[in-house]
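Example 3.2
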Amino acid sequence: MLTLFNSLGKKYETFKPVNRKVVTFFNCGPSVYQRSHIGNFRTFLFEDILVRYLEYSGYRIKRGMNVTDVEDKAIKEAETQKRTIKGLTETNIRRFIQEMKLLKMQIPDYLLKASEAVDEAVKIIEHLLRLKIAYWHRGNVYFDPLKFPRFGELYGLDMATWPSRKKRFHKDTYPGMQWNLGDFILWHGCTEKDTACWESRIGRGRPSWNIQDPSMMSKHFHETLSIYCGGHDNLFRHHDYSKAILESIRPYPMARFWLHGHHLHVNGQKMSKSKGNIYYTEDILRKGYTVSELRFFLMYGHYRKKLNYSDESMRSAAERLRNFKKKVGDIERVAKPASSANAKTVRNIKMIFSSKMDNDLDITSAFDQLYDTLTERDIPGLKPAEASGLIKGLKEIDEVLQVIF
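Structure, written as C-alpha cells:
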C-alpha cells in the first residue's frame, strides 16, 4: 500500500483518500510574474509523478492547480517592463503550459487564475470579518492568527514565541525562510493610482496572495482534499495561512495529506537571478540533452531531498537513462517473435516498481531496482514471451515515468 510522508503531523501514513471514488488533489502552481525555470519544474514534476502513480494504482483524480497572476511582484515587474499585468502574466502562462506539455506533464483539470477568483476571495473575507477573525485597518483587511486555535500546526510553529505587541505584515510575500509573527494581509485596498484593482462589495482593491489559494480552491472543491502539494518554501508563511483561512469558515479540514517537495540547487547554491545560475528548459536542451533526459534528471532524486544540478550530475543521469533504454531496446529485439507476453513476468516487474514507489514515492530506488533487474538478466537467453512480458510491464510503468519509450 502507498505510504506518504504527511507534513501535517510529520509522519509516514498509509494513503487513504477522503473520497473512495475520486482523489481530490490540489497543488500550488507558478507565480507568473516571471517565467518558470527548471527548479520550479522540479516541484511540478514530483506532483506529476504522484498523480500518474495514483492513476497507475487505480485511482481516479480530480486535480486543480492555482496560477498566481495578481500579486505585488507581478505589479512591480509589469511596471519595470512597461507592460500591462495581464500582458505579462498571460505570456508566462502560455509558456508555462507549453513547457508542461514539453516535459510530458499532465495538464490539471482546473488551471485556476487568481484574477478569476476575486469574487470567491471577497466572499471568504466577508465571512472572516463577520467572525471577527479578520478586521479592517487603514483600508486593508488583515487576518489575526491568534483567533485560529490551530494556527501553525502544519509547520509546527511554536506559538509561545508570538509577540504580545500587535504587528501587521502588508506585503504579499517576504524574502527568506522565516516567519512573520503577526497579522497577515487578506485584501489590499486600492488608491486612485493603483491599477490592479477590482470593484467589489467590500470596496475597490485586490486579494492578497495568501487568500488566493483558498478562493481558487473553493470554486471547484467542496470537501476535504485528499492531497495538497507544494514546494518546501510553502511551509513558511503560506500553507498555514491558507489552511487557517479556509478552516476558519469550513467545518472540515482543508486537506488530509500535505506533501512538500524540496528545491533544486545549482552547484550547491540556491537557484536565483542574483547568482546568475537560473536554467530554463532550452538551456539544458542546447547542451545536447533530450526532453526525456531532462525530465529524468529532475525526477531522479527523492522529492523531499534537495537535488543539485551540475554538468556532472546532469551527464550522469542522462547516461544512466541511455544505458537503461539500450537494455530495453535489446529486450525488444528478443521479444519480437513472441505471440503473447508472459503474465508472471509482467506482474514481477511491476511489483518491483510498486514496492519502491509505495515507499513515499521513492522513484530513485524504483528506477535503480528496475535497472539492476535488467542488468542481471541474460537478455540473449530470454524466451520471447519473457522478453515480451518485460516490455509490456515496462510500458505500463512508463505511463508514470514517461522517459523509457
